[in-house]
Amino acid sequence: MTTIQDVARHAHVGAATVSRVLNGSGYVKDATREKVLKAIKELNYTPNEMARNLYHRKSGIVAIIVPEISHPFFAEFINAAEIALFSHGYQSMICNTWTEQNYEARYLEILKQQRVDGIITGSHTLDIKHYQSTDRPIVALDRDLGPGIPCVAVDHVEGGRIAAEELVRAGCKNVLQCTGTDTVSTPSNARHETFDKVMREHGITCHNYVQKQNMFDYSYYDKISDEITDKYPDVDGFFATDGLALSLIRSSMKKGRRYPKDFKVVAYDGTYISRLIYPSVTTIVQPINELAVQCVDLIMDLIQERVPEEENKKLKVTLRRGQSTEKF
Amino acid sequence: MTTIQDVARHAHVGAATVSRVLNGSGYVKDATREKVLKAIKELNYTPNEMARNLYHRKSGIVAIIVPEISHPFFAEFINAAEIALFSHGYQSMICNTWTEQNYEARYLEILKQQRVDGIITGSHTLDIKHYQSTDRPIVALDRDLGPGIPCVAVDHVEGGRIAAEELVRAGCKNVLQCTGTDTVSTPSNARHETFDKVMREHGITCHNYVQKQNMFDYSYYDKISDEITDKYPDVDGFFATDGLALSLIRSSMKKGRRYPKDFKVVAYDGTYISRLIYPSVTTIVQPINELAVQCVDLIMDLIQERVPEEENKKLKVTLRRGQSTEKF
Questions:
Q1: Which residues of chain B have a CB within 8 Å of the CB of A278?
Q2: What is the complex's ipTM, to 2 decimals?
């Protein structure tokens, strides 16, 4: 049987590099990654875990529950999680809840009946107790589901602070941030409090626009962006998640405001859509790939009845500075 | 047991509307859709097919094989397919091939071992014979996999014609289109021939840039966009898929060209990313939702051993005119 060492030798790299490629952990040069994938292909290498699974007759399936597959954040998350699961010999079953509580609950019921070895959930609609009554290993993405259910998230407080300081640096005097509903307990809410605090410390006006629903719907984004730019025509700095940030830019430009001369923007998440426009958008980047790898590592620990080193993981965000925060 | 009629009565709509919502076929107003989903939730309605499946002990799982989940086209396709499958009492297992032949082949092997009731494939890397040797029902998205395997696609020839005529109408004299590799037999290649033909008929210069790989990789898009805008600095009209079209716009703007004054753009696919920039991009829109619903309908026919009304489906594209083709 081909081993990871065989692949490493064939690709002229170290075994750790092969492992990083298999785990999709992302610190590998494109050229090296290509060499490794080529070697995997040529040797028809199958990770050991896959063989082990088949032997132990587990289903080899981990369910991933998300509100909407086509939202860029979850699309990138699923993509990375699926690659990481595959390297452990697992496949993913994707469950789409459309932010409907009913579907989340029903999926949990179905997953109880199916042979699913574990659940990674990024969905936010359902009451915690539903999850706690599930007898499968569960890992939560960016959500507190209570004791015993590990949570993987970024340091959102730091994210809010960096975003605020970037708009201060750019010379903003009158900013607006869009927040999600506060009906769900997610660490991501913490960024808005910090953002607001930093602004007050600098004597800068900060409007907080609360979205009625945590919807991932581009026509909804356009609707509230038009409302916001009508109601606050003089705002000179926006802080919002990628999709909404782009929508605020479009809405402002339609009304004749010059981007990024008349107003500054910091987007949050750093999905690929934040890279699509010119001039470029300054973005607080979540390491989506790493979030997925950590979720998969934790669910593997739980499935294989290992005690995870630490239950909750808090990853770092980074600032990707673009033209949208060039100084006034 | 709650029936579809109960839901219809509760939501004050017709049963056909409930069915459209369940099938995600998309001709339902947002407000109506919300009413129906609310009724489904309140009555805890479960589609009949789901009960039937549980009774017949099918796995209730359809695998969807795509090159990359996070590509907007496939993300939207999976999203819609998953909703349509759910309404039939099915779940989806998503398989991500990263355009690596090796993974596509391995997935097919795994799917043979798993209890998967059917396969919808949008992946393009593998030799046809691998699919033909699979003993599960298969439906292909946008790919000819040979006799007996239904194919769902749009009318790409018409798409190429509409795109070309739009750039002619806008006054272009020197255009460039980006084509995928021609190593895979997919109906989508047909649009480029037609585009080129229309241009020649109008005496317009048409450069054809052939992508080396059908990669869905934004840094690759940026790389080839920079090459293209270096090599063809005077092109006044671009035709490319959504992501590449946006990349060509960014690259041209970076070099000081004014969008959309100095050059026109027609994007192809109509995923949500084609709506993200201002001024807006003219786009040939594939009905992605409908493509997914048709794939699911066909796979349901095959799974339930019904003869499909027609094996191959060819859906219409539409032109969404934006500011990127305003006349010179």
A1: 249-250, 253-254
A2: 0.80
